[in-house]
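> example.struct
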């Protein structure tokens, strides 16, 4: 199937062609660059511009992220008949074998035949940050075809903050007895989410105790914006709180601001760091300070090509012969 047909059928949200199209954006071969540019051009010509709300769902393993995402997706689709929802789930990769069990799809229970819903699993490739190597690239496509894109991370930790740069709204899913007040503070994640979601609240007694502990912990963080201290209580098992969670997502969806430019800038810096290391970051900083170079969100691949040329010119000018 050629690119023109893949793009046309992906716009119609046909699952198999869309899956094939996304593989182009996971392809690391040099010849895939031109293909990605052609896909973006065709999507632009068809009027498929970046419009999606990106939400992140993160939390410790076992907190019920995947099950809750399934409940949330079903609720959103039921509340808005015109809404299209995609879920991008990042599964951990083995540091020994490099393999990944893409198991999150088992717990996200949504009608697989619905053309308004799309699910994609992605390996983390042992990367920190909570997202995969190609998460940003897939967001470039999904954000043009769907209204809400949910990114489920591997799991939260002090080094897993990349997802914050990719989403408009971040939900931290916690479970009862996740830790005492000291443990909440030690985790280093209290400043990151927009909304705290205390899941598994069907376990009423221990859920209440955890709610009080979380509230008292948040009072210790004076730097946290009061608007980002919202706590929702949910249960993926009973559906409790799913209405309030879906309404919070739809409220964010109604806001005009989107994170597209921040996505591109962050992803570009990650690419520079991985491709060129500290020298690349120094070069990028100098070029930006001198207004010589700016990341073009409209053409990510073109920005990469321009920077590569400027970087090697900069290396020669600096006299770094070790490159």
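> example.seq
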């Amino acid at each position: 199937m050629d690119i023109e047909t893949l793009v046309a059928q992906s716009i119609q949200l046909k699952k198999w062609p869309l899956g094939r199209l996304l593989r182009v954006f996971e392809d690391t071969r040099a010849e895939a660059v031109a293909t990605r540019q052609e896909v973006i051009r065709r999507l632009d010509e068809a009027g498929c511009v970046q419009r999606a709300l990106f939400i992140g769902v993160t939390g410790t393993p076992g907190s019920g992220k995947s099950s809750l995402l399934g409940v949330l997706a079903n609720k959103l689709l039921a509340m808005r008949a015109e809404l299209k929802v995609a879920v991008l789930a990042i599964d951990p990769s083995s540091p020994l074998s490099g393999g990944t069990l893409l198991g999150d799809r088992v717990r996200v229970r949504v009608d697989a035949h619905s053309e308004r819903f799309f699910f994609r699993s992605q390996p983390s490739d042992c990367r920190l940050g909570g997202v995969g190597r190609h998460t940003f690239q897939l967001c470039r496509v999904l954000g043009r075809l769907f209204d809400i894109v949910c990114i489920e991370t591997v799991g939260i930790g002090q080094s897993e903050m990349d997802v914050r740069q990719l989403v408009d709204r971040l939900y931290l899913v916690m479970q009862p007895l996740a830790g005492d007040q000291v443990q909440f503070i030690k985790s280093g994640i209290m400043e990151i989410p927009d909304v705290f979601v205390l899941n598994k609240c069907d376990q009423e007694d221990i859920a209440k105790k955890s709610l009080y502990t979380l509230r008292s912990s948040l009072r210790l963080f004076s730097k946290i914006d009061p608007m980002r201290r919202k706590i929702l209580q949910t249960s993926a098992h009973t559906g409790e709180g799913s209405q309030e969670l879906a309404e919070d997502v739809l409220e964010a969806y109604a806001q005009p601001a989107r994170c597209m430019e921040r996505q591109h800038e962050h992803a570009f810096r990650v690419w520079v760091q991985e491709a060129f290391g500290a020298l690349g970051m120094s070069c990028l900083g100098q070029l930006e300070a001198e207004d010589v170079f700016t990341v073009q969100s409209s053409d990510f691949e073109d920005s990469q090509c321009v920077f590569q040329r400027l970087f090697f010119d900069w290396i020669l000018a600096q006299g770094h012969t070790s490159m």
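> remarks
Residues 11 and 46 are 9 Å apart (CA to CA).
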